[in-house]
Design goal:
By secondary structure, the protein is an alpha+beta fold. It has 2 domains: about 270 residues, no CATH class; about 90 residues, no CATH class. The chain is about 40% helix and about 25% strand. The strands form 2 sheets. Strands 1, 2, 3, 4, 5, 6, 9, 10, 11 and 12 form a 10-stranded mixed β-sheet that branches. A two-stranded antiparallel sheet has the order 7-8.
Amino acid sequence: MHIIRYTEGVFKDMGLKGADNAFCYATGLMTSQKSMVKIIEKLGLEISAKSFAESLRKFFKESNRAKGDVLLRVGIFIDRRKNVYVIVDDTPDIRYGKKVFAAANQHNNTFNARLWQNTIVDCAIFHNGAYINNYFEVYVPKDYIERTTGKKGDEIEIRTKIEIAITIVKEVVAWLLSLGLSKKRIHILSDSWYDSRDLIRSIKELGVKCVQFVKRNFYVRIKGKAVRIDEYFETHKEERYFKNGEEKKVFYKETRLYVPEVGYIKFFRFKEENKEEKYIATTKLDMRSKSAYRHKKNGWKVEEIHEDLKGYFGLKECYSGKKEAYYVHLAISYLLFLIFWSYKVVYSDERTIEQIWWDYCMHHDEIIAYSGLIHNRTEELWK
């Protein structure tokens, strides 16, 4: 089946109001149509922009609930003998205008500077060689609340990125357990921007495994004294090495230490040639160095999501400053990523996401959407 018809079928299978227009909007995102008006014009839809936007809002209200079940129906296969990785991170979305929802002057890790942007806290769920789901939420900074409400200081109630991450992790774990996966198979990974004791403790309380990058200045307690983890490794423990898949030496140290408010944690320090030391903390006290190193590699898979979302699925192309419109846009963008990955799995398609995306874009003029688009359609194309 062609990727266009497959994508159309996924939206249809949801059985939600506005799914037809959501499919049209999704096609617009992938073919660089940067506003609802242009999407309507390009696809020849007989609908006003206002009605189009309203139908998308109706779609969004139910889309998150239906997303996981739909992806399972269209062919995501769970292997309960294999691990599943929940990778938590955030990504910036540079936007303009002081009235834009949740936009403020925030630190951008890519440019190492403060830029006017949104920050999206999200997670990728990777299992059995494929991405099987994702979750996201927009972080609302203090500056935005002050600017739009006039509140100051203690009057402001703000959810930190750590608190958002904890909420997302709890939702994901509940979803994975509902699929029959055991807790010992679930691993929560995050980079050093989320090296929070609150996050580690919350994951530990859920009974699943935590594998977290930590900064070099992460504090542990040694004989009643607070010590930085990098300083501890400099003066303690013997350095060893193993060879990675490229036959290059990976030097490491490991230890178990007590962390206040969390309990005992196992720490690793990895050093590769011409690279900075990386520190990993895990609640799995019997984890071996090679396993921790593999988890370290898996932790970067979330960047693949961000690259594809921005490169092919229009994450950066929202021109509305309203909250509802922005969430609709993000929901469809994240859903498209999953649809393309499920297509790869269902049909054992070895092409890259980019190649499948090109295939979609080269034939988008021949799409027939639910709303009655008038285009020529040949059986040869849609096989």
